[in-house]
Amino acid sequence: MEHLGKACDNPQDVCLTFNGSAKTLSKHGIAREISKEEAMDILKKTRELGLVQIGDNIQESVNWICNCCSCCCEAILAYKRLGYLPKVNSNFQPDIKDNCVGCGICIDRCPVDAIKLVDGKAVVDVDICFGCGVCSRFCNVEAIEMVRREKTRFVPKDAMEIKVTGQKWFWSFDYPEGVNSMHELVVPAGQPIKLVMSSRDVIHS
Fold first, then answer.
1. How far is the C-alpha of 26 from the C-alpha of 203, rounded, in Å?
2. Would you give the end-to-end CA distance of the chain in angstroms?
3. Is the Cα dihedral 188, 189, 191, 194 positive or negative?
4. Span 93-109, mean pLDDT?
5. CB proximity list for 30: less than 8 A, separation 6 or greater
6. Average pLDDT rounded to a whole number, residues 115-132
7. How many other CB atoms are found less than 10 A from the CB of residue 143?
């Protein structure tokens, strides 16, 4: 939202990349290399601010963790504006206990407006909730516990990583083993893939 002059006060240089993605982005000057200690400090800071951690959907060799606010993150904004999908969630959801005092802090903190006050108690719409856990961090009476959903989502062990770069008039695609293509994305049948996207000289939303 910064290009529209609508950015909030939350820090913007807090999204983390790892492994191959980090190497590629730092090579092209899009990201900078930091220490593990600095990365942990960033995670601690963003959690204290109530930002949402959105990570790579694989079990091994994670390539990115975004620390997002609900007012500037394109993914969260699209989720709220265009309609939610039940498959877009973590494997956890908040369980609100009887000691809820109805203070409304969790309602204000929820990035996707999934919590409402009913008869003086907080109630979660688990279909809208994507299980970020922000509400549980800020409950002063510890009335919110993150519990595993009855139906969990499959998380692949790994996936084929394809780096996608947006430039003026075209897209380029970099595949493993140094193979690349332009304009057309080519993917193998029956194999999980993940797209690591960046922009060279224009804003692609």
1. 19
2. 10
3. positive
4. 96
5. 198
6. 95
7. 21
